[in-house]
Design goal:
alpha/beta, 7-stranded mixed beta sheet, 7 strands, 19% helix, Staygreen, transit peptide
């Protein structure tokens, strides 16, 4: 796993979203550059589909939901390669290796939001590893944002 470097993170807030509001709908799209190792976090009312590379599909997308009065942060990862160049086994390993860095980038990039809503640091992060293959199609609890704070 690479170490998170805040200098390599760019954050964009889209129309309808401020550094502290709203909680719902608040959607996160995290992409990166393999060449420069830069991370790009877009926070908006919807996912930033214009930032997603339809060829690679290696983005991390997440959103807050309220389930019976309790908040949950949901992450969706596309394990299958839409172009069959990378096998799901490799993509699954890469996502699992890089997910802590991605969650740290989201936590750091939206730190004013977490300061305004400190209770959200302790809600479950549920990750959906999406695949047509049962061995990779998983739902897992990956802790809380308290576990992914930049020090």
């Amino acid at each position: 796993m690479n170490k998170f470097n805040p200098d390599k993170l760019s954050v964009e807030f889209r129309k309808g979203v401020t550094k502290t509001e709203p909680i719902i709908p608040r959607r996160y799209t995290l992409t990166h550059s393999d060449v420069t190792a830069e991370l790009f976090l877009t926070i908006g009312l919807s996912y930033a589909y214009d930032k997603i590379d339809n060829y690679m599909r290696d983005e991390v997308v997440g959103k807050w939901i309220n389930k019976e009065g309790f908040y949950i942060y949901c992450v969706h990862l596309y394990v299958d390669d839409p172009n069959s160049y990378n096998f799901p086994t490799m993509r699954n390993l890469i996502f699992r290796r890089e997910l802590p860095l991605a969650l740290e980038a989201i936590s750091y990039g939206d730190r004013e939001f977490f300061k305004a809503h400190p209770q959200l640091n302790n809600v479950p992060i549920i990750v959906f590893f999406m695949s047509v293959y049962p061995e990779f199609n998983k739902v897992e609890n990956c802790g809380t944002f308290e576990n992914y704070k930049y020090l």
